[in-house]
Amino acid sequence: MLVASDISKAYSERTLFRGLNLSMTAGDRIALIGANGSGKTTLLDILAGDILPDAGLVSGRRNTTVGYLKQEPAPFAGRSLLDEVLHANPEVVALSGRIASTRETLSATADPGQQRELMDRLAQLDAELEAAGGSDRDHEAKAILSGLGFKAKDFSRDMKEFSGGWIMRAELARLLFRNPDVLLLDEPTNHLDLEANLWFEKYLSSFPGGVVITSHDRAFLNQVANRILAIEPGEAVHHRGNYDDYLVARERALEVKQAAAARQEREMQRQMRFVERFRYKATKARQVQSRLKQLERIEIIELPRATRKVNYSFPEPPRSGSDIIRLNDVGKAYGENVVYRGLNLTLERGDRVALVGPNGAGKSTLLKILAGVLPIDDGERRLGHNVITAYYAQHVLDLLHADNTALEELQEAAPSESEQNLRTTLGGFLFSGDDILKPISVLSGGEKARVALAKLLLQPSNFLLMDEPTNHLDITSREILADALGDYQGSICLVTHDRTLIRQVANKIIEIDGGLPRVYPGDYDGYLYRKQQEAETKPSAPAAGEPTNAAPDKPSTRGRWRRPLTAKEEEERALSRKARQLATRIDEIGAAITEREAVTSELEAMFTNPEQFADRSQLEDTGQRYRILKEEEQSLWDEWERLSLEAEDVDRTLVALKAG
């Protein structure tokens, strides 16, 4: 469907990728991953034909249609939401116009011959419209809009009435309605809530064409992707499977690479010891030059940088009372839209709450009420004893001082903290070296979000409220946020569509629907399981949340049972065992060579002074011993080279097997 052959792209002196290849067929759902700035959007632009690569070629099957969702929507024409989506398919729009024009001509003519001709033309146009899906286009457009969270009353609204996030959903609906052969999707989940995400996952799973997608939502990538293209420093890595499969394979490949690098380092050191020992010895000149040439030919194994978990040193917050906050008979409305009436809710010390529910249910409103940044119309909001709140929402990025550096922002927030601890904290949030001295004004949205999060967590609060904290953050930054929240000592309440973050942080789920909170103690997967049980016992009730394969806890069994290994696992085990055996033998050979080199060096020193030998017989015996040692040494080197090549083949085979 779409093929990228040996493409490269650089800006100024910075190369994004070189020699990248990609071949897509129907049914491929390729997750394009990489750090911010690695070139993911640039690659999508190249695949869409919006920009040209510096080298290489992008080609596609004849008549292949490509749809591209950018992070900035294309302009709308000022129509209603439904009309904008319906007009997204130009072929159907053109056919509908020709049908309307033909019918108008037919109604105006009285010539029987011309009427028959127009009727035949109408039949042909109707057949073409039917083939293009035109007859059901209203139903299809409404189904897509509903799946993305729009209500029926929204269909007739003018596009100018919608906010940015909803405009992006409309742009996605417009693209899906076009139904191209290839979908290129740049961060489509940024503006989708959990329910819309789930619908979109199902849509992509059944989409017959090819998909290339970027997303910072790890759970979404695990559900959708069946291939991974990772843009990593110096290389583009292909992997079959979802995101978690890729991480496992990458970790194993890194272990193999580290082992190979360690062996290479040991061998280079051994060769260099030989060179240094005999560099100025005329009798060893040929061997020294041979070793030097071998060292020059060695391609150094470069290990990729791996993000490590940072243990944070946040200020220990003051201990609060048992109840963090109580809402008693709280009411809140926006004009005639009543969001809450008679709301009662209590959060306790140690709660790490995720607020979930359909879009528009009032999750952010409840979070703002809990944070005290939104006044209530009725009832009472009562903070517990010694509770200190901290609130994170997107507006806090605007509160950063543009002229301050990242370090200065943290120093203002936590003046009692040492500069070393602040630097360590910024390092944990991916700011290294001189990055901490950059002014806020030059930072990207994701970098500003990381500064704001670090600043917030350094304040001595014991009740943290967060509204979509993962916006603007890539997968690595989200993992760092989860690590930071894991080290945070206070209570947490958050709204997020990032299911991975919910799983890592929450110990209580509160579902909001119809203005009523429903508390589910336990983690997110437990919540999903209980929702699934409720759906099975009450088929008429709509199921909120996500499908899950979770099952009731199985009773423990006595004894230890191990499942039989698959053929692939058996092969992996055999190769790993062989790799260990080869590595052990190579090390043994290296030690034996070193021992023989030490002895032959002593004998060579003796040969320079023949007077040390008692008689000719002793000299001949020593010479014979020297020749045997040199033959053994050469034989060991031959075996070392043969086994080293074999070990490299085994390592490559093992990496390919684990990655495949």
Describe this structure in words.
The chain is of the alpha/beta class and 660 residues long. The chain is built from 19 helices and 18 strands. The chain has a six-stranded mixed β-sheet with strand order 5-6-7-3-8-9, sandwiched between helices. A six-stranded mixed β-sheet has the order 14-15-16-12-17-18, sandwiched between helices. It has a three-stranded antiparallel β-sheet with strand order 2-1-4, with helices on one face. A hairpin with a 2-residue loop joins β10 and β11. It is globular.
Number of beta-strand segments: 18
Distance between the termini: 22 Å
The main β sheet shows up as: 6 strands, mixed
Adjacency order of strands in the biggest sheet: 5-6-7-3-8-9
* Mean pLDDT metric: 81
How many helices? The count is: 19
| Net shape | globular
Strand content: 15-25%
**Low-pLDDT segments:** 540-560
Kindly state the percentage of residues in helix. 40-55%
The secondary-structure class comes to alpha/beta
Q: What is the radius of gyration?
A: 34 Å
Map the helices and strands.
Blueprint lengths: L1 E10 L2 E11 L4 E5 L6 H9 L6 E6 L5 E4 L11 H6 L3 H19 L3 H20 L5 H11 L16 H15 L3 E5 L7 H13 L3 E5 L3 H7 L2 E6 L2 E6 L2 H36 L6 H13 L25 E12 L2 E12 L3 E5 L6 H9 L6 E6 L5 E4 L13 H8 L5 H10 L16 H13 L5 E5 L7 H13 L3 E5 L3 H7 L2 E6 L2 E6 L2 H14 L29 H41 L8 H44 L1
Parallel strand pairs: 3-7, 3-8, 5-6, 6-7, 12-16, 12-17, 14-15, 15-16
Antiparallel strand pairs: 1-2, 1-4, 8-9, 10-11, 10-13, 17-18
Helix pairs in contact: 3-4, 5-6, 9-10, 9-19, 12-13, 12-14, 14-15, 18-19
